[in-house]
Amino acid sequence: MKNYSSVLIICNPNAMRGKIDEVLPHIKKRLSLRYSKVDSITSQSDDGAEELANKNAGKYDIILSCGGDGTLHQVVNGVMQTEFRPLIGILPYGTCNDVARTLKIPFKLDKAIDCVLRLNTTNYDLMTDGTTFISYSLATGYLTKVSYSAKSNLKKKVGRFAYVLSALKYIFKFNSLPFTITADGERIHGKFAYIMLINSESVGGFLLNKGENLHNGMFKLVLIKQTKFKIGSFFNFLKIFIRGIRRLKNSKNVIVKDVKNVIIENHSNEPFALDGEKIKFLRKEINTNTSLTFIKK
Question: Mean pLDDT for the chain?
């Protein structure tokens, strides 16, 4: 095993509801039990972690993302733009922490630090459109707006409850979205209530894809067809988040596939949530052909 000796902690300024600077001395002290060099940088903005990761990827053996899934997304993309591939660790102090949940990293500070000290690792496939790397999900449709419409200042104050408040705005909006999806060469055209590409166990804090193989070169495509009565699509959506994806594999109006390549033609120009952040596109091709090594529990 490589001798890992240096760690950089990249912090979101809102981590731990804006109090991350108060606990950084404790984090560094504990990590110094194993690593000879432990440094930290707090981003000056919510979206500054990518540049910090990019500039420092070649200087450290391990980069720790201290924040939520948005911070991790930035760290991953910053690292992937360089030739260097440090280990990626997570101190999960965001709102949902879906990748941390997938890697079974505890949310209590000292237990999360224990994972970095033990240094158990796993290879984790990334989805990519050729420019941006996706850590865990790309989705659109019912309630997707919740992930990017919740205000950061509200999340800082009330945590996950900010998403509940945001959900109230969209809970009765059942859109019928026209898409053409080409999955490993199979063309699927129709109207959908929900579309998701996922390579994690957790989305929105729900373990809906438990037991997913994170390093098999594939990701899951989930399509919920728009039913004649829109309430039917709504119940299929709920079933995924309550019972899990695997339980609905044989459902008439739900398509679940393990795929390597997906082309999405977005005929309505509906926004997507990419790792929880809003993006818009008319056509996008997604592949999985690269991975990073992450620290797990």
Answer: 88
Using the structure block, give the residue that is written with the tokens 């996706």: 134
Minimal CA–CA distance to 292: which of 115, 80, 49?
Answer: 80
Helix (H), strand (E) at residue 92: strand 87-92
CA distance 224 to 233: 7
Q: List, for residues 232-282, the tens digit of each pLDDT value.
A: 777 777 788 788 887 776 678 899 999 999 999 999 999 999 998 999 999
Whole-model pTM: value is 0.89
- For 46, the 3-state DSSP assignment is coil
Say if residues 124 and 214 touch (Cβ distance below 8 Å): yes
Helix H or strand E segment including 223: strand 219-225
Name the CA radius of gyration of the chain, rounded: 19
DSSP state of 130: S
Outline where DSSP puts E strands in the chain: 6-11, 37-42, 62-67, 87-92, 120-128, 133-134, 137-141, 177-183, 186-198, 202-203, 206-207, 219-225, 254-259, 261-266, 272-274, 277-279, 283-296
The answer to whether the CB of 214 falls within 8 A of the CB of 122 is yes
Report which of 172, 150, 144 is spatially closest to residue 162, judged by C-alpha positions: 150
As given in the structure block, the two tokens for residue 277 are 């952040």
Distance CA 224, CA 162 (A): 26
CA-wise closest residue to 220 among 240, 190, 191: 240
**What are the angstrom distances between the C-alpha of 91 and each of 4, 16, 49, 62, 279?**
18, 10, 14, 12, 26
